[in-house]
Amino acid sequence: VNSFTGDLRFSATAARARHSAIADLMVRALVRPGTLSLAAGFTDNAVLPVSIVRDALAHMPAGGGCLQYGSNQGRPTLREAIAAHIGSQHGERPDAVGADGIVMTNGSQQALYLLAQVLCNPGDIVLVESPTYFVVFDVLAGLGIEAVELPMDAAGQVDVAGTGELFERLRAEGRLERVKMAYFITYFSNPSAVSMTEGVKRALGSLVAQHVPWLVTIEDTAYRDLYFSRPYPAASMLSLGEWTGLPLVQTGSFSKCFSPGIRLGFFATNVPALVEKTMCVKGQQDFGSANISQWIAEFAMTRGLFDPFVAGLRVHYQAKAKALDDALGAGGLKALGWRWEMPEGGLMLWLKGPTGLDTGMTGAFCRACMDSEVLYVPGDFCYANAASAPRCNVRLSIGAPPVEDLREAARRFALAAQTVLRG
Ligand SMILES: Cc1ncc(COP(=O)(O)O)c(C=O)c1O
Known about the structure:
Elements: H1 12-16, H2 21-31, E1 36-37, H3 50-58, H4 76-87, E2 102-105, H5 107-119, E3 125-128, H6 135-142, E4 146-149, H7 160-172, E5 179-185, H8 198-211, E6 216-220, E7 248-253, E8 265-269, H9 272-285, H10 291-302, H11 306-330, E9 348-352, H12 364-371, E10 374-375, E11 377-378, E12 393-397, H13 403-422
């Protein structure tokens, strides 16, 4: 190849784009084939909806329309099915959102990017939980947006009183006007597996109305359907009276509860102008997410196949979470000062190592894990403020590995913990 190796005159956007730390971790797993990864956010190949997708393709409407360009906003029947699905969930108002307020996107990742693009300028502020979904930091940094951590309590909930104080502080610093969005993962969060209580949601609604009524609050519900024993008993903000009259967005995804490979997500909002603006920008990017993927999701949802499929996933992932939880316990981690809870849904276990342990990429523990051929996500990736991020946490994903690999990975992880403790 006759490569060009001179200096390219990159844009400011390119200059801000960072190499993703998680991509580095994946590469390491690939170059050492024996490595077991509890780091990747993949789902389990064993439970992908292969037969539903085959059926959906076999039943494509005559004329091949779903192999044609679709609409920018997305298939109306699918959006209606999603609106009905949201409205039927625990505690929701049946009319929490209408099909007109939904935009289909290429994964919920694109929804997050579009929303940040249409709402924020470089130098603006987005409020985030700590910890939170670390890929969001790349989105924000890529657009020159500052992520500011919200104070959290010991149970992993947003500290509402502390958030009020934060608003006062930002006002005193003349920065409150720059706060444009807040981003919450409210069901079985990645990474913490914590869900936001309805009480906290209601109190936050009142606080936002009082201090920052222009703030667009994003509620990421990527893992909501993946509860284990029971739905998490909190309605989404779209159904709560305290949020009435405030701009809200709910993002959702078909990745975790169906198939990441169809790259389909959406956002639902009570702000018609946000639908309009994001569609203008989406029009610049792709003028509509893949019509065929949307047909597959529509087929699953409208033929009564989606709910039983997700019910199967819940049983599968609960068993995997329990296997990892048991194996970590059997590895003696608790006696070494590690703490964690069995999650009630989602794909993550969030472990707190003993105080003083450094789980960061450059620390002895991470090295010991790599030597033992097991990978995890260092918890400090998940905090906006690197300087104050706790250094002793770890995110483990139950998504991809089969149960026997989860057990073996837990054994290696516990061995590394013991090795490091012995020095
Ligand atoms: C909390 C959360 N939000 C959004 C996403 C993006 O997922 P997708 O673009 O596949 O919908 C992920 C993926 O891991 C996630 O964990």
